[in-house]
Design brief:
Blueprint (H helix, E strand, L loop, with lengths): L5 H4 L12 H7 L1 H29 L16 H30 L8 H26 L5 H24 L8 H25 L13 H26 L2 H17 L16 H6 L1 H45 L4 H5 L5 H8 L1 H12 L2 H20 L1 H47 L1 H6 L3 H52 L5 H42 L25 E5 L5 E3 L43 E3 L10 E11 L9 E9 L3 E6 L5 H9 L3 E10 L4 E4 L10 H6 L6 H10 L3 H6 L17 H15 L3 E5 L7 H16 L5 E5 L11 E6 L2 E6 L1 H7 L2 H22 L5 H19 L3 H7 L15 H11 L1 H34 L4 H49 L4 H5 L3 H43 L3 H46 L1 H7 L2 H54 L4 H42 L21 E9 L8 E8 L4 E6 L5 H8 L4 E9 L2 E2 L5 H6 L1 E4 L8 E2 H5 L8 H10 L3 H5 L8 E2 L8 H14 L4 E5 L7 H14 L4 E5 L3 H4 L4 E6 L2 E6 L1 H6 L4 H10 L1
Parallel strand pairs: 2-3, 6-10, 6-11, 8-9, 9-10, 15-22, 15-23, 18-21, 21-22
Antiparallel strand pairs: 1-7, 4-5, 4-7, 11-12, 13-14, 13-16, 16-17, 19-20, 23-24
Length: about 1500
């Protein structure tokens, strides 16, 4: 080699005179090998730069600017491998510099070729990453060819370097250069493969299926990604062990500096640095610790990200499946007690969340044992048999931990069961709040919920005791291991305890804490997730409805009536569908169903009919085209030999021997007494019942519209409720509105038909709801219209208008088949087919003449109905062709609209039509008042005690570590008397550890007690306040929103806050301890810590500002999901009848996605924070490590203090991360407290007052003195200066015209609305002075909308259970005409009523309310349209019963018909909120110009 290259090559083997061939000569020339590499890297560096410059500046690509980067295959892996390559190249630079130093020690010139090629390589790789980024940005895949050539060139160069080292006998794993070169060869090879993949640009697709077993589905769908995450976790956790070993080596390095070996130092000739020499250098060790921390960060954070994303995916899938399944749940499943609203709500909220956390933590279950095994192996290498003796403690305590985990799992099951029951009761309370408040029973239901809550808290306490026990065992294990290990080390090895051994092993002992804490927590999450999985799986296997129309397979958006084929279904074991061949042409794969629903036990999606079931009681159906099953011409629906029941396991058929043909395009009327089976008949047609025998056939392509007896409305605009997502056709829409007499009601609403009509239509009356429900069926233009007793909620006038203009003109005249259930017998002569039901059988069917011939009693009832209708016609003329009940109904609506819009911006309300209040969501950081509020509920004493105990606990830990430092330093100084050192230090060390453990247990116990106390008080306070808020609050607040407070927010307060507060307190004190220790050891540390702390502070602020709003968005976006879910459950029959399940499914998917977006961003933001905080922590490690090394070199810092400082430095970064994250978690979880606090302080009614005498009211005299009543403080009075007196025992009928205020008068008696002037006196006592509960408990009301609760019949009749015997209960049922119906039940009075009373008809529910009112023995009874849903025969019986059973009571009756109140003792006539007439019926009739007299005259006319 020429001498001019000595500046680059120095003196190397190329100057030897050996005779070598050119190949060996090249391999022997290290400088030439390195020089060629330098030239190669330099050339590609120039090429990369030139291409970036030319393309970026001189072409159109410079204008490319996009927010979304389209990445190439292997994008993430490329960046990870490139980052690793940069780290290896940095190590190569370090190796080259250190090798050069070995030559300089021998006074040889420097040899830059040893590191220059690595420097050029480092720069070239950095520029290649910039090059690759722009390749993706510009989308020019051809640019990857140059990258491929670069990796190929680099690979060839490194392979030749290995050959060179092999020739020089340097191919030894102890040679750092050889190791680094081999690693680079592997990396370059993988980068070449990635580049080839980009060039090939081949896309892969995968097909996934589904199985019934959810755990198998988890593995199949999400397993691959979780395995990738598991590999990253394994790599990260293994790399984490580098730092404890590096601490030991670093301490040894400082020890050799302070205590050098005696004798002359060894001098080795120039050589390549060996692995041992390289990693003995303290500065290299500090850099290694930094790099290990960085790699650990990226591996673990990527693992968390993948696990969280997969957890989110499964959470969304579970929620979608639960909703999808609920749309197909059989009626018996939801009304028979096996499923209820609370349980299904938990399947939508609690269970998916538990499964999400299981996915997040599942990799810990295998990773923790591996961590423990590796940790113990390393401890053994450091301490020998002493470590094994300590490890035996883990084995001994494992059974105890497993037993505790099993105990927690059992308690968790019980807790979830209690939670279901509590939510079910809470939902019932909220759904029936109006009746409960009117009856003063809200306190009873509140107590029932509190009893369940007490059980729930007791299970929660047991779980938390298990948690404390786990924490104690977890924390005590490393302590006991250190005591045993350090205590036996000297005795077993004969060596003193030195800083190198002490702090290396101490770091390993500290590393045991995290996996030991993670194991029980992960086990708990896994158990919760597994329990939830089984619960969801059981739910998915629940019975489903028979008919395929319920399934999410096809939409109905048009009507075709030219098909002669039929669709039928039979009993489950031989069920058959017949369908036309044209049906199969419909697209069925447009519905967005979850991946988990593609298959189910062989029930594949067949052509034409989608079969999606989970363990339905119904078996698979076949599609056939048999002419024998076709319906004859003119028949729309046929039932042959039908026998049906609700519960497949019941032996009692609800419907028997049903044989009927429903004529096509005609009116069929279904009539019969209450409980005769009319609604069940409709349900059988709709496929809601279980078929025992027989067959139901529906003409093919016939589409069904259904209006339920209990109207079901969506929380949306009035127009959208009618359109039901169909396009607007103005002329048809106007005809439907007019036919249903909705125009006057629409004119009242602030935004017309765009007004939001509230959850379940709660801001409308029963009649208005029913007319909207019927309008929906009319607008739908379906072939078959089924109306289940819609006229019962309407007075005769509106009913006649609806029948004539709607049913006859709009439907029947257009050849639509109408099936009408009604008690209005005056319409029988208009029917083409009349079916009379009795005791679950068809008593008679045919024309009116056929029915009269079969049942002569029907003739007299028919004549009475005609007479009653004629009477009503006369009343109609007198009142200006608008009935008083309708006028009153509309006046109520006006008042409600006024009340709603006065609380808001009127113009905005009118413009948008939104009456529902937007969910409250505060902005900015959570107010300190919320923290104070929580601390007050937890108890100030408990709060302060927890902090003090935690501080003392930290003090013991600091003392323990300093004592250990002194012990190990004593081992260095005194190399002879080991026993004396042991005796001096060991006892104190054990005592300090014992104090640490005791105070840690006490701290955990105090925190658990405080959190449970707060959880109990917060939920109780919210519950007690919610039951006292005015009824108008529930008119503007969806039930789903309130229920979310009692489910999701309560669950957060119950469970999440405990772990967060525990971690926050521990991590904050650990941070303070670490700063204190490091400052004591090396005061200059504080100078480096302050800027890092400032960086942490700003990161925290930046993170919290984002995360808190994302948490609130997550919380607020949950409510629409649950509200829509609640709405859907209330209208399952309607949804299935319309066969629009897929539309509802898509809507809920959209809402789930909105919620998921907020939650996903929240999780990603946490990963964003984690990466940055851990990286800053890694920087702090390198800075603190360098500081202590400088201290050791300059001021002679003790090795033990260096070890202690670096150990704490590693801890401080971790605990600062914990502190920031838990602080953020606390603020996010305090959002739940904030929301609960809001509902705890909503203004409520005034319940205070002076208790009246015990037997008040003993007479029942009611006196109103100049009473004026209004709905709100800013609204006009609806009653003005009312002065009237009702004597004890009088039967008073109340009637009136437009704006009369009849219902307002009754609500004023119960103080539901504000008495702004005058007073109401009952038996001499002003009701304003009486406590609200006492007042309402002494007055009975039978409301228009009947409400029954889950429980026994006995409980529903008398929830107090104090004053009534079985005899009195049966007497009440007899009076209410229910004795026979209840007697026929197996359990009698103890028979269960399902949620909402769905296992009884609406008429029967009304009768139960009448029986309930009789049992209350109140002196005053209010009947508000109490017989609206009852047939005429039963109504007549009840009128006679009321006059006898309530003979001694004051009865105020509001009724549709004048005839109902004609026999009253007094008649009160109201007009425009004032009394215009009051007196005995005979007196008022004698007034020629009187309003009441005109009604009576018209009746006789």
């Amino acid at each position: 080699m020429d001498p001019e290259w000595e500046w680059f090559c120095g003196i190397n083997s190329s100057y030897t005179n050996e005779s070598l061939d050119w190949y060996d000569n090249v391999r022997n020339n290290t400088c030439l090998v390195n020089g060629v590499g330098s030239i190669s890297h330099g050339i590609f560096l120039i090429l990369f730069s030139l291409i970036l410059l030319v393309v970026g500046c001189c072409t159109k690509y410079r204008q490319v600017n996009t927010k979304h980067l389209l990445v190439y295959p292997g994008h993430s892996i490329r960046w990870l491998i490139s980052a690793l390559l940069l780290v290896i190249i940095l190590a190569s630079i370090g190796e080259g510099v250190m090798t050069d130093e070995t030559y300089q020690v021998l006074n040889q010139p420097t040899q830059p070729h040893l590191y220059v090629h690595s420097v050029l390589s480092f720069i070239a790789v950095l520029v290649s990453l910039i090059y690759y980024h722009h390749m993706e940005l510009w989308q020019i895949p051809i640019m990857s060819t140059l990258l491929f050539l670069y990796w190929l060139s680099s690979l060839g160069h490194e392979i030749f370097r290995v050959l060179s080292l092999e020739y020089q006998n340097q191919d030894d794993v102890n040679i750092v250069l050889f190791d680094l070169t081999v690693i680079k060869i592997v990396i370059y090879f993988f980068l070449m493969i990635i580049e080839l993949n980009v060039i090939r640009t081949e896309k892969k697709t995968s097909i996934t299926g589904g199985e019934v077993s959810l755990p198998k589905i988890y593995v199949k769908v999400y397993g691959r990604r979780l395995v990738c995450a598991a590999i990253l976790k394994l790599v990260g956790e293994m790399i984490a062990f580098i730092n404890p070993l590096a601490i030991g080596a670093l301490t040894s390095y400082v020890t050799t500096l302070k205590y050098p070996n005696e004798g002359p130092p060894e001098v080795n000739p120039g050589h390549h640095v060996t692995m041992e020499e390289f990693f003995k250098n303290g500065f290299v060790l500090v850099v290694v610790m930094f790099l290990a921390s960085v790699v650990n960060v990226f591996c673990l954070q990527t693992h968390f990200y993948i696990a969280i994303i997969e957890g989110l995916n499964v959470r969304a899938a579970i929620q979608a499946m639960v909703y999808e399944k609920s749309l197909r749940l059989s009626t018996v499943a939801t009304t028979g007690g096996t499923m209820d609203m609370g349980q299904i709500t938990n399947h939508m909220s609690v269970d998916p969340t538990a499964i999400f956390f299981m996915f997040q933590m599942v990799n810990n279950l295998w990773a923790v044992p591996i961590q423990l095994a590796v940790n113990l192996a390393l401890l053994y290498s450091q301490m020998g048999y002493s470590a094994l003796i300590g490890a035996s403690l883990f084995i001994l305590m494992s059974p105890v931990q497993l037993n505790i985990a099993s105990f927690i799992g059992r308690q968790q099951k019980k807790l979830l069961k209690c939670s279901d029951e509590r939510l079910k009761k809470t939902n019932e309370l909220l759904q029936g709040i109006k009746l409960l408040k009117l009856y003063a029973w809200e306190g009873l239901y509140c107590k029932a919920i509190e009893i369940i809550r007490a059980k729930e808290l007791s299970f929660l306490l047991k779980i938390n005791i298990g948690f404390i026990s786990t924490v104690c065992l977890t924390l005590s294990m490393p302590v006991l291991v250190t005591i045993v290990g350090y205590g036996t080390y000297t005795a077993l090895t004969g060596d003193p305890l030195t800083p190198a051994v002490t702090f290396s092993s101490l770091a390993l002992f500290n590393a045991l804490l995290v996996p030991l804490m993670n194991l029980p927590m992960s086990l708990l999450y896994f158990i919760n997730g597994y329990v939830s999985t089984k619960r969801v799986q059981k739910f998915l296997a629940a019975p489903e409805v028979e008919k395929h129309g319920s399934e999410l397979s096809r939409e109905q958006n048009g009507a075709r009536r030219d098909q002669a084929e039929s669709v039928g279904f039979r009993k489950p074991d031989s069920e058959t569908f017949t369908d036309s061949s044209s049906e199969s042409s419909e697209e069925i794969d447009t519905v967005e169903t979850s991946k988990l629903m593609k298959k189910n036990g062989g029930n594949d999606v067949t052509k034409g009919v989608s079969i999606l079931r989970y363990g339905s009681t119904c078996t698979g159906r076949e599609v056939q085209n048999e002419s024998t099953t076709r319906l004859k011409h003119g028949v729309a629906i046929k039932i042959s030999n039908g026998c049906f029941l609700w519960d497949p396991e019941s032996s009692h058929a609800v419907l028997s021997d049903i044989n009927v043909e429903i004529p096509e395009g005609k009116l069929t009327i279904l009539t019969g007494q209450v409980g005769s089976g009319k609604s069940s008949f409709i349900s059988a047609i709709l496929g809601e019942m279980t078929t025992i025998t027989g067959m139901v056939q529906v003409r093919d392509r016939n589409q069904i519209a259904f209006a339920a007896q209990k109207p079901w409305l969506l929380n949306t605009s009035l127009q959208e409720n009618i359109l039901f997502s169909q396009p607007v056709e103005s002329r048809k829409y106007k005809r439907v509105i007019d036919a249903c007499a909705l125009r006057p009601d629409i004119d009242i609403l602030p935004a017309g038909d765009q007004t939001e009509i509230g959850e379940k239509g709660i801001n409308l009356s029963g009649g208005q709801k029913q007319r909207i429900s019927v309008a929906r069926t009319m607008y739908s233009d379906r072939d078959v219209i089924i109306l289940d007793d819609p006229l019962s909620a309407l007075d005769v006038h509106v009913g006649r208008h609806l029948f004539e203009e709607g049913i006859m003109k709009l439907l029947v005249s257009h050849r639509q088949t109408v099936i009408l259930v009604t008690h209005q017998l005056q319409y029988l002569n208009r029917a083409d087919l009349i079916i009379e039901m009795k005791d679950g059988r068809i008593a008679a069917q045919g024309t009116l003449d056929d029915i009269i011939a079969a049942d002569p009693d029907m003739y007299s009832e028919y004549n009475k109905a005609i007479e009653l209708a004629s009477e009503s016609e006369a009343e109609l003329e007198q009142s200006g062709y608008e009935s008083e009940s309708v006028k009153e109904e509309r006046e109520r609506l006006r008042q409600q609209v006024k009340t709603a819009i006065l609380t808001k911006d009127v113009d905005k309300s009118r413009a948008s039509g939104t009456l529902m209040e937007k969910e409250e969501m505060e902005r900015g950081s959570v107010s300190y008042s919320v923290y104070i509020y929580y601390a007050i509920n937890a108890g100030w004493l408990t709060f302060i005690l927890s902090v003090i105990l935690a501080a003392v606990n930290s003090g013991f830990l600091i003392g323990t570590n300093f004592w250990l430092s002194a012990w190990s330093e004593a081992g260095l100084r005194n190399q002879t008397d080991y026993d004396e050192i042991f005796a001096q230090y060991f006892g104190v060390y054990v005592g300090l550890n014992a104090g640490y453990l005791i105070f840690r247990v006490l701290t955990a116990a105090a925190i658990v007690w405080g959190v449970l106390t707060a959880a109990k008080r917060l939920q109780r306070g919210m519950l007690h306040n919610i039951i006292k808020v005015p009824l108008r609050f529930f008119d503007t607040t969806p039930i789903g929103r309130v229920l979310n407070r009692f489910s999701n927010d309560t669950e957060q307060i119950d469970t999440k806050l405990l772990q967060t507060i525990n971690l926050l307190l521990a991590s904050s004190l650990k941070v303070l301890s670490a700063v204190l220790v490091n400052t004591i050891v090396m005061p200059i540390f504080i100078a480096f810590f302050i800027p890092i702390a400032i960086g942490y502070f700003f990161l925290q602020r930046y993170f919290l500002a984002t995360s808190r709003e994302l948490q609130r968005l997550d919380s607020v976006s949950k409510s629409p999901v649950f509200a829509y879910f609640s709405e859907s459950l209330g209208g399952l029959t309607t949804i299935r009848a319309f066969r629009c399940g897929d539309r509802f499914y898509k809507t809920v998917i959209s809402r789930i996605n909105s919620n998921l977006s907020a939650f996903m961003y929240l999780q990603v933001v946490q990963r964003w924070l984690g990466v940055r905080l851990d990286f800053i922590g890694a920087l702090m490690v390198i800075l603190a490590g360098m500081t202590t090394l400088v201290g050791a070199l300059t001021i002679g810092l003790d090795p033990s203090l260096v070890g202690l400082a670096v150990t704490y430095t590693l801890q401080i970064s971790g605990y600062l991360n914990f502190y920031v994250r838990t602080m953020a978690d606390l603020e996010m979880q305090m959002n739940a407290v904030e929301r609960v606090k809001y509902y705890t302080h909503v203004d409520n009614e005034s319940y205070e007052g002076l208790e009246p005498p015990q037997n008040w009211p003993n007479c029942g005299t009611v006196k109103l003195e100049n009473v004026s009543v209004r709905y709100g403080q800013d609204t006009d009075p609806v009653l003005r200066d009312i002065t009237v007196e009702f004597q004890a025992g009088e039967k008073v009928g109340i009637c009136g015209r437009t704006g009369a205020g009849k219902s307002s008068l009754t609500l004023a008696l119960l103080r539901v609305i504000d008495i702004c002037k005058g007073r109401v006196v009952i038996d001499g006592i002003d009701i304003k002075s009486v406590p609200l509960t006492s007042l309402r408990s002494q007055i009975s009301i039978i409301p228009q909308d009947p409400v029954l609760f889950t429980g026994t019949i006995r409980y529903n009749l008398d929830p107090t259970g104090k004053d009534n015997t079985d005899e009195s209960l049966w007497r009440a049922l007899e009076i209410a005409q229910l004795k026979d119906a209840v007697s026929s039940l197996d359990e009698g009075l103890d028979s269960m009523i399902s949620e909402g009373g769905e296992n009884f008809s609406v008429g029967q529910r009304q009768l139960f309310c009448l029986a309930r009112a009789f049992l209350r023995k109140s002196r005053i009874l209010i009947m508000d349209e109490a017989t609206a849903s009852i047939d005429l025969e039963t109504d007549k019986l009840l009128q006679s019963v009321v006059t006898t059973a309530f003979a001694e009571r004051t009865v105020l009756t509001i009724a549709h018909r004048i005839g109902t109140i004609l026999n009253s003792d007094k008649i009160l006539v109201l007009d425009e909120g004032k009394v215009v007439e009051y007196g005995a019926p005979n007196e008022l009739i004698e007034k020629e110009d009187g309003i009441f007299a005109s009604f009576v005259r018209d009746k006789h006319m």
